[in-house]
Amino acid sequence: MKKIPPDLENSFKTFLDQNAVSKQIQIGYQKWLRYYLDFCQKYSFVQSDQNSLDHFIKKLKEKKQTDKQQSQAAQAIELYYKLIAEKEHIEQSVENQREVLSEKNEQYKTTRADWSSVYNKLSSEISLRHYSPKNLRAYRGWVRQFQAFTKSKDPRLLTGSEAREFLTFLAKKKKVSASSQNQAFHGLLFLYKHILKNDFSELEGVVRVKRKPYIPVVLSREEIDKVIASLKYPYDLVVKLLYGCGLRISEGLKLRVQDFNEVVIIYLDLQIWTVKSYRLIVIR
Domains (ranges, CATH) in the chain? Predict the structure, then answer.
């Protein structure tokens, strides 16, 4: 005897529960469904054809089944027909939705789409969050590269897979540094989250650039003395301030009179140099 396919059996059980059929009666209904499927296979009837039910009940009469058994079998098969009808309705609804989405996607361009609205929104979102102009320039630069990588695909069609492929491309083909790839990642994250309002979770498998160990170059005291000795005034003074105070170049060049609380006297040798521009007395 033909067995009920597992997926149909589970669906039929769930359908019987939804229609408040008791567990005891469910056992009988499942038996009659199994008999019906076997009957359809044996006598070449279409299982979803409701006209086959009359032939099935007629066969039950020939098998000397009681009126009660015939009635229960008819109820079971009618519920089976309802289940099939609901499934077909759901499948048709899903197919209609796919067709609508397909027609909608045809309106979008897979290449050479206009990204001007993306850049306008990017500037607005950056300004809204009070990010620095450097952030805007960096993010805009990575978005432009991403646009070129996707061949100006319509932003509404972008998914996380394009971002994953772009980041992997930067690592494998472009050979960018770890910091550059990390900056590109944050630029795309901002694009997807705040501009496209899209999911950015499909990043498994991205090839990440390994950070190279940074070994600073440090000059010895003798080498520093040689550098300073080869400099002329006032450049030597700036270098001494950088070296002695641990300043950056920009900090040393931006020093003004108001940056000093009092006259600074540095005892180095025995010669006196007066720097009027800084009002600083340096004793060498």
Answer: 6-106 (1.10.150), 116-196 (1.10.150.130), 221-283 (no CATH)
Instruction: Specify the higher pLDDT residue, 264 or 206.
Output: 206
| 101/95 Cα distance (integer angstroms) | 10
Q: Considering the entire predicted model, what is its pTM?
A: 0.43
pLDDT in tens, 38-89: 888 888 888 777 788 888 888 888 888 898 888 988 888 888 888 888 888 7
Q: Residue 135 contacts by C-beta under 8 Å, 6 or more apart in sequence?
A: 126
User: Phi and psi of 281, rounded to 5°?
Assistant: -100, 125
How many angstroms separate the first and last alpha carbons of the chain?
Answer: 110
For residues 194 and 124, give the distance between their C-alpha atoms in angstroms, rounded to a whole number: 10
Residue 228, class by beta-carbon neighbours within 10 Å (0-12 exposed, 13-18 middle, 19+ buried)? middle
Percentage of the chain surpassing pLDDT 90?
20
CB-CB contact of 165 with 157 (8 Å): no
Tokens of 1: 């005897």
| Omega before residue 234 within 30° of 0, cis | yes
Closest CA to 15 of 66, 67, 90: 90
Q: Measured between alpha carbons, how far is 123 from 231 in angstroms, rounded to an integer?
A: 46
What's the chain's length in residues? 284
Cα–Cα nearest to 48, from 26, 69, 70, 77: 77
Q: What is the pLDDT of residues 223-251, one digit of tens each?
A: 988 999 999 988 888 888 888 888 888 88
Q: How many Å apart are CA 51 and CA 55, to the nearest integer? A: 7
Contact between 139 and 122 under an 8 Å Cβ cutoff? The reply is: yes
